[in-house]
Amino acid sequence: MKDNHNIILFPKWKTVLEEESLAALKEKRYEEALKKLNKLISYHVHNHEIMIGKLICLMELGYHDEAQDLCETLLVDKDQNYYQYLHIYLTLLFQTSQYELLMEQVDYELQTGKIPSPYKKQFEQLYNMSRNMHDQLQEEKTTKYINELLKAVETEDHTKQWFLIEKIRKIKAKPPLKFADPLLHNELIHPVIKTAIFQWLQEMNVSEQVAIHKLDLRLTTDPTKITKITEHGVVKQTKLLIGDLEQENPTLYLLLEKVFYRYAYVRYPIMPPSEDVTAIAEALTSVGKEYLNLSAENEMESEKVLHYKKEIKMCEALYLSVIDE
Question: Taxonomically, which superkingdom (predicted)?
Answer without folding.
Answer: Bacteria
